Amino acid sequence: MSYNELRHWADSWGLVCMAVVYLILVGWVFLPKGRERSDKAARMIFDEDENTEADNG
């Protein structure tokens, strides 16, 4: 595959592939269990602080 062929593919189908992957990754967040995972990830940094305060106090 030459450079020009690769460039032509990237200009056409490469963009389509990247758009599809982007939409899948964004859609993944809105799945039913996505909210639970997002809430857990958002609170994860505070869980360690609460545990260390309980050990120190």
Low-pLDDT sequence parts:
none
Radius of gyration, rounded? Answer: 21 Å
Number of domains: 1
The shape, in one word, is elongated
The counted number of beta strands is: 0
SSE succession: HH
What features would you highlight for this structure?
57 residues; elongated; mainly alpha; single chain; 88% helix
Question: How are the SSEs ordered, and which strands pair?
Answer:
Elements: H1 3-29, H2 34-56
Descriptive notes:
The protein has 57 residues and is mostly helical. It has one domain (3-56). It contains two helices and no strands. It is elongated, with a radius of gyration of 21 Å.
Quick take:
The protein has 57 residues and is an all-alpha fold. It has helices spanning 3-29, 34-56.
